[in-house]
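Reopening closed ticket. The problem is back. First fold of the pair:
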Amino acid sequence: MAGSVSKNCSDQEFIKLFREIGPNANAKQFGILLRGVFDRRKRLEKKYDITLTPKNLHKQPKIASELKELKLTNYDRPQHTAWEIEDGEVFVASDLHIWPGPQSMMLKAFKSLIAERKPRGIILNGDVLDFCAISRFPPPGWERLPTVQEEIEAAHEHLSEIVNAAGRQCRLRCWTLGNHDARFEARLAASAPEYAKVHGIHLHDHFPAWARAMQVWINDDVVIKHNWKGGVNAVLNNVKESGKSMITGHLHSGYVRPYTDFNGTRWGGDMGMVADVYGPQFEYVNGNPRNWLQSFGVLKFFRRKLLMPDLVIRYDAKHVQFRGEVIKVA
């Protein structure tokens, strides 16, 4: 029945609605899977020689061919994705904890600096969404929490803006899974295991512009993943015990430290957090002071070697500090 509803919609009506309300609302209106909407869009683009994108910010960039070239089209989540970068920058943002409503100043700064510097790659290093409504922890009170759908819609908007800011030349984009991101599939796997591999049941089904992995390896020397070791010495232990430079998030700490032995110097870093330190996502801390830092990372590669990682750090409500300069966020 769902298929017949879609067929009863003329090509021109489908094109008009797709541009006006986007793929997700289109699928909901016609009662079909999101994959069916994208399949028909592809057929119509070829038939009429057009580029079919929605007017709103929830659009999904056409990157299927790019992901195929990067060999990232396998359906199951790869344990790690390998990048080769001779020279250039990679932006790493951890712990965005996106909620509906106003964006954090650091998320705005992340988009702004990406648009200005045009990095080679972008890594969303886990906990992009918060998924408070499906947490195993009880809610803090009677306050209404954002629904899963509301968080996904908000993330669509911000992630589309990041892709647009980077431009089409930035084809290395990866989202490494964080523990908050994992709540989406963990809840479904626990309550509805029969739906495994049905399109839409996996978080990455909703964000096709981003390759997915547990970790990104760059030039076989640098590992970027959401977390490994815990505690105050996590960054030191990560780089010491892995034998690689390792960039993480999760702890919201925001600092970089070297580790040197007979093999040379490696870099460990926690890239801090993009979400507001005192945002509503963290009311479980009960208003206590938090030794967290609003920041994100810029990894600079020169002749395949990672230089000392830099942090872009919140300076005040309208400025960040980066490499010794205070920059106003537009």
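Second fold of the pair, where the issue appears:
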Amino acid sequence: MEKETDRTTEELISVVVPVYNVEKYLERCVDSIIKQTYKNLDIILVDDGSQDNSGKICDKYKEKYNNIQVIHQKNQGLSIARNNGLAIAEGNYITFIDSDDWIKKDMIESLFNAMHKYKADIASVAVYDVYDSGQVIKNVKYKNVKVLSREEALECFLFNGYLTVCVCGKLYRKNIWDGIQCPPGKLFEDQYTTYKLLDRANRIVFVPDSKYYYYKRNGSIGHSQFNIKTYELYYGIQEEYNFISSKYPELENTMAVAKITWEIVFINMMLRGDYTQDKKLVYKTRKYARKRIIDVYKCRFISITRKVQISLFAYCFTIYKKIYMSYKKLKNLS
């Protein structure tokens, strides 16, 4: 039986929660943080110009709990909300939770213990994907803890096998954020941020227990309609590829496959939206996929099904598009 943690020696952990028009979900999120088994928390709620009652709910929590800080700012977007929370964070460790998500009561303690046990700079847990329908899916099937070097983490995180590109669901030593911020004004801000943090970390530990509930609600960024801003995902993919493959040339072949995989994600978003199809970009991506098809077949981070998908995309796009749109209609994707 493990010895109970001495609460008087717990190190301070900052929890940053950006808040924008989430009155329906905010209490669920904040209550899950307050009920954590790890108690020495510096909770920062950043009200990003909410037009509903979210700001008032934040103030209500601040009045009730001494360890809650609240920032009210004009609407500037998720990145600046995170950055402003980071700027006043007092802990030597920091984690981020989106305000429509929530966490299991022992998530922070599990991350903190794993980080210290394995002398890691970043600790990550598995997540549950939660849908408006009520469906809950555990998106990781690994059973064992994984301890990774920065090279190993950078090689695998873009494939969403377990580590994932998301800033949330992780605990960081705060000093690895020095000089790093989420990019103001951009969608898909995690795509521009997480690889820089992994590059700073000497060791990363992944805990296979699902302890973060990621709510994929309609209207959130990941489910919004395709538009010109969606291209920021594409540009983020290029930035990641260029940085990692140039600094770690031994990872270039794997990064090429990750690049193709994410570019297809981007093109799928284009296909299921009302935006005019960018034929030049589709052609460029397909040409690159054909050029790197051997790397695709050799890649150990993607399934046979994914390899078939990429092949179909590269060589038979008309058929690929028909199959994908039929799949979208069947699954009622939005």
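Update: turned out to be a display glitch only; the data is intact. The CA atoms of residues 36 and 105 lie 4 Å apart. Strands lie at 13-19, 41-48, 68-73, 93-96, 102-103, 122-131, 136-138, 146-149, 170-173, 203-216. Please close again.
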